[in-house]
Specification:
mainly alpha
Length: 90
């Protein structure tokens, strides 16, 4: 799924489907996520040929570390964007 999201995201960015008034740092943050998460999963799949199942499962923690790293790098964006405009409490 993350690979599909990455393909859709980069297609949208490269073809100009992203709103030009969007914050460039938000676009960069989403691009980093789209670019880094799929290789982590591919790496864990390759690791599966050489390591134990437990080692592969622990390698999935790298995704969490990637998300934490990106969140820390773009911490100034937190709370500036509302993703859903629907009513609260649903």
């Amino acid at each position: 799924m993350s690979l599909a999201f990455g393909l859709v995201w980069f297609t949208a960015v490269l073809r100009g489907f992203v709103d030009p008034s969007a914050d460039p740092r938000l676009i960069r943050m989403l691009s980093w996520r789209a670019a880094l998460v799929p290789p982590v999963f591919v790496g864990s799949a390759i690791l599966g040929f050489f390591a134990t199942r437990t080692a592969v499962e622990y390698s999935w923690l790298a995704v969490v570390l990637v998300f934490i790293g990106i969140a820390l790098a773009f911490a100034d964006l937190r709370g500036r964007f509302q993703l859903f405009s629907g009513p609260r409490g649903r």
